[in-house]
Write a structure and sequence with these properties.
Largest sheet: 2 strands, parallel
Shape: elongated
Strand order of the largest sheet: 1-6
Order of helices and strands: HEHEEHEEHE
Radius of gyration: 27 Å
Strand content: 5-15%
Number of helices: 4
Number of strands: 6
Oligomer: single chain
Distance between the termini: 65 Å
Amino acid sequence: MEFAVLLMVVIVLGLLGWGMYRLMKRRAASSPADAGQAEPHSLPLDDSTYRVSYAPPEFEWSGTTTGALPVKILTYKQYECLEDARYGFRIVGVPPTERKQPQPHKTRAHGLKTVASLKKHGFLEDDGEGGYLITDRGLNALEVCSVRY
């Protein structure tokens, strides 16, 4: 009987010790960031700082465009269109029923409204052959505008 009580006390103390260990470990992991005492390079970076681009260098924003952009938020369709243009595709505006139709090499079809909107804001420019290419302002929009899904 005494052995059973002693065993229960050891188990309870072990569980309490383990719980305290877990609690202290969790607090130690979060306290430097909460207190603002961590080194700037050791803070975890938010998702927006992780930019991996596979676009050719000529399709990266030059950093020279100045002035405020006409929009702060891109729709998902606008973002998708600008991304296609960024990766070197020629953009054509088509009615929704024709969007899934095969396109010539290095050409992507997007909705008429989407393309017209991006052209109106200066993010796309006419290539003289019925298609559109991304402008430096469009590359800037990809960098700074948020996306509404």
